[in-house]
User: What shape does this take?
Amino acid sequence: MAGLLRFVPKVVSQMEGSGGFCLLMPYPAGPKEDFPQEVFPSKETTEDRTLVVTCMQLLSDRQRKGVGRAMVERLKSWAGEEGWEAIEATAYQDLPLVYEVTGNAGRNWWEGLGFHVRESLEEEAMKGYGDFLQTLETQAREKGMDPQEVTQKFIMRWEAV
Assistant: This one.
């Protein structure tokens, strides 16, 4: 195995108790213990035909070798074949500390795969850690970015043609 890419229908990710649905994390980031016993909507009754990437991880020796890109391209292909209309994923600024802590691919990476910013939000949780925030601001300055933008979270979206 080179890595994993977890995704669910958006309607499932928004259900109470889903917690964002990263199975590798405890609630509230991951699902509540009893979440698997919920009744999930069928594909046929789901109006919003959007999939949400909830977790993507690569083995360290597979990073920066095109494996993540290949997994997302395959998901896009499969989603189109199966009648899904869009895929969404969360991204943050392209800063080393963000990669290290969240494991999330950055905004630029998703844009390189044909995704666009659907929504930009302030990630309040990032503001609560002084040293963390200072390091992010320093990294942003070093990359020529506005340090005020380091706490942004982006909802990235790809739409099937």
User: Anything to note?
Assistant: The chain has one domain: 3-94+102-122+153-159. The domain at 3-94+102-122+153-159 is CATH 3.40.630.30 (Aminopeptidase).
